[in-house]
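debug: dumping io for the single-chain case to check the tokenizer round-trip. Nothing else runs in this session.
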Amino acid sequence: MRTVYEDTSVAGTPAQSSEAVRAADKPEPGRRRRRVGALDLLIVGLLIVLIGQRFFIDLLSHPALQTWSTIFVSITVQALPFLVFGVVLSAAIAAFVPPSAFSRALPRRPALAVPVAGAAGMVLPGCECASVPVAGGLVARGVAPAAAFAFLLAAPAINPVVLTATAVAFPQQPEVVFARFLASLATSVVMGWLWVRFGRGEWLRMVRRPHLEGGSKWEVFRLSMQHDFLHAGGFLVVGGLTAATLNVVVPRSVLDAVAEQPWLSALLLAALAVVLAICSEADAFVAASLSQFSMTARLAFMVVGPAVDVKLIALQAGTFGRAFALRFAPATLVTAVLASVLVGWWLL
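debug: decoded output
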């Protein structure tokens, strides 16, 4: 199986590049640029608040907004410790665990390496953002792509941090934790075996990008933790805002009508997981807040999110090429939904 590598260096001589930069930076005669800074935005914001303070006071005292803020704060506060812990562990793995350690631990036959790589996700915590470059490193070092992809899907979904967060979000419901573990592991193993059977090497176009290889391990740790926290924290806020808005704005009758249709509710929350792209360490708290939907539908939300979402599709396209992402992401979405529905029907 042949893997194609692309060089992303920019063509052009240093002299041409410097001349182009100087030409672009040179201001036109008679014109003076004025950039809007943070201080300008702060002054405008304060003026708006002072002028419309009566309106804002009435708005903040509205019962619907108070309910919305309560839901949003509770989701964020509950999920934040697990998010921080997961980001720290993910950065530690990226900095201190060499990719060669994975290749030595896997069987040589791809069909056997797939379930082993999937099970390895239980002991190697990390968010989905970190699993894509790790999987890319495994493929680049000779690990069977099917095993690397099984690890890519399993690691952010069945690691101890995620399962513990799920247990906290759904107290006294151990069947939810087991259902998430089983459906996510089944999704990763099935996708790995599908790649063994149908995958083609020409679909992989590994893009070599300069990363943090030249820095010290502690520098890699710091930068990885900073990058993952900023990205995952932003998605957590978006997820909390959306969940709170759904609970307050959307009429209860509409949610009840959708929730009564098992397949429709599962597909709706699966699509919501793709769009929201919440970090796997925090998505259980958002799922727990969507109490209008069945447990099977909320299970689909938790299984689909770490496997396929908008940021993962972009990361996969940037790491393995668009041809891979356009085939892998839809197949993963279908597999994850089917696994969620079957496991939810059996256990929940």
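debug: round-trip ok. Confidence is low (pLDDT under 50) at residues 7-18, 20-25.
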